[in-house]
Amino acid sequence: MKRDMLEACVFATVLCGFFGIILKRNLVMKIISMDVMSTGVIAYYVLIASRNGLFTPILSNANRGNYADPVPQAVILTAIVIGFSIQALMLVGVMKLARDNPTLETHEIERNNAP
Amino acid sequence: MITLTLTWIALPFFVGFISYLLPKLDRYLSLGVAIASVGYALLLFVQPPLTLKLLDSFGVTLLLDPLSGFFILTNALVTVAVILYCWRSDKTAFFYMQTIILHGSVNAAFACADFISLYVALEVLSIAAFLLIAYPRSDRSIWVGLRYLFVSNVAMLFFLIGAVLVYQASHSFAFAGIREAPPEALALLFLGLLVKGGIFVSGLWLPLTHAESETPVSAMLSGVVVKAGVLPLVRCALVVVEFDPIIRIFGVGTALLGMFYAVFEKDTKRMLAFHTVSQLGFVLAAPEVGGFYALTHGLVKSSLFLTAGSLPSRNLKELRHTPIHTPIWIALVIASFSISGFPLLSGFGAKVLTMKSLLPWQVIAMNIAALGTAISFAKFIFLPHEKDEQAKVKPGFWAAIIVLIGGLFLANVVYYEAYTVANIIKPLVTIFLGWLAYFLIFRHTTLKLPRLLEQFDHLIGVMSLMLVLLLGIVLA
């Protein structure tokens, strides 16, 4: 029951991010929405990893109960790094665009740069 | 073979960084890596398929067989041509570094057989592609690059959710695990790959991105980069037989959609970009022979983009009044003939092979798409040309074109059985009908298709529609 609630919250986060990308007009807001969406995805990986147990999978003598699955966590670590570097790159691009399009509204930028 | 494979995967990344430290050697190093890739790809055709398990039982594997060999060969040849094209230009070491890293990440995407390595390869690829698109640093190029990065990153987030669902069901990330995965996992994964590969409506980011980039970058993007999303789809269709019809449906839909836009397009680079969409449909329409088609298309499309970059104008209406230099025209015509499926060039063999592997319900639609190809390339073939005009082409242009067109002639041997009388007559009739339709109808049309669907918000919005559509197809 608790798990289903958590899962619902995670998907709500992903959807919030996704709708933010569509509905927000400002480019920076769009990028932040994308970050929210990727936070949701990361949380989903953590949730799936904890399906069998919650303890951190570190080798020790004491038996502390069921371990969380380390594989999805390892994988999502890679994805976090990639996601954050892409975001940094996009913000640099936005900084460059801001010089000529101070409002940073995507409609405006699109109109100014349409062929 | 195992050491060789690992070296080959890692080499482009190492060399990329080294060439940035030794800017004087940048071109030589990049060219060397690309040529090494050609050698490795040729080796794949004679070796037995190689499966490399990298991590215990989580399905992180590389799979190298003749199918990936075709894709890797395409990548290597196009990279060689692009580097030769830029040889005498004033591109900095940064450009060559990104080119070679793009080459390496595309190679990695072709080699891997699990969703997580694929994710990493595709993301590295989008970063490198973004940096190449934004290389001129103009506002427009930065916007086009940002738009590309945004669309592909959002699609890859959906892909990640799908990947973890596959892991949950089968405790492995391997492509084969998709059989046990729930339908929503399939829809999410396919959405990511469809967007990345520029397939169907979700591929409409592609025309603007490919048309507005610089000439060598468009050649790379259109020739190989989109195929990084297509090969995994082909593999899924081959691994799990039940998905084969889904992939084929998308193949036919894409071929018709791209053809429809390309026929009415009046801008050379945009027409070529739409045509890429249509040709990717051909690759997917017959997954088991997609490799050869991808090779042919990669060679032809990059040579067309490089040639289109040397024309005096991008507008086809203007080109009809300004004669082009005859040698350039000849290069253009050879490439156009190959893509229309004219005998003697490998486009003929690829088309015959694809048409033979179609299912009965696909045949009519794919023949219409082939006719559309002939119509759209008649626009190039019947351009005026003259001899005496002093040509102003980039110094590396001819070296690049010789590599690509030479590849087209040589690739004929892959399927030499195609040369029977019935097979030869059919494409000739198709081309003739296409030219007839061009002169009677399409030469005079001034229909301008709206670009509404290519707007940024719509590109993201279409993803949600595609997700619903995919779920519908998978559940049906």
Radius of gyration of chain B: 21 Å
The best one-word shape of chain B is: globular
Number of strands of chain B: 4
Mean pLDDT rating of chain A: 90
Count of beta strands of chain A: 0
Main structural class of chain B: mainly alpha
Major pleated sheet of chain B: 2 strands, antiparallel
Q: Name the poorly predicted regions of chain B.
A: none
Largest interface: A-B, 38 and 40 residues
Q: Catalogue the unreliable spans of chain A.
A: none
**Strand order across the largest sheet of chain B:** 1-2
> What would you report as the Rg of chain A, rounded to the nearest angstrom?
19 Å
What class, by secondary structure content of chain A?
A: mainly alpha
The overall pLDDT average of chain B reads 90
Report strand % of chain B. Answer: under 5%
Q: Roughly how much helix do the residues of chain B carry, as a percent range? A: over 70%
Q: How many distinct helices of chain B? A: 20
Measured as a percent range, the helix fraction of chain A is over 70%
How would you describe this protein?
The complex is a heterodimer of chains A (about 120) and B (about 475). Chain A is an all-alpha fold and about 120 residues long. Chain A is about 70% helix and about 0% strand. In chain A, helix 1 runs antiparallel to helix 2 (about 25-50). The longest helix of chain A is centred in the last third of the chain and has 29 residues, at about 70-100. Chain A is elongated. The model of chain A has no long low-confidence stretch (mean pLDDT about 90). With about 475 residues, chain B is an all-alpha fold. Helices cover about 70% and strands about 5% of the residues of chain B. Chain B has 20 helices and 4 strands. Chain B has helices at about 1-20, 25-45, 65-85, 95-110, 115-135, 140-170, 185-195, 205-210, 215-225, 225-240, 245-265, 270-285, 290-310, 315-320, 325-340, 345-355, 365-380, 395-410, 420-440, 455-475; strands spanning about 50-55, 60-65, 325, 385. A two-stranded antiparallel ribbon of chain B has the order 1-2. The N and C termini of chain B lie far apart (about 45 Å). Chains A and B meet through helix 1, helix 2, helix 3 and helix 4 of A and helix 5, helix 6, helix 8 and helix 20 of B.
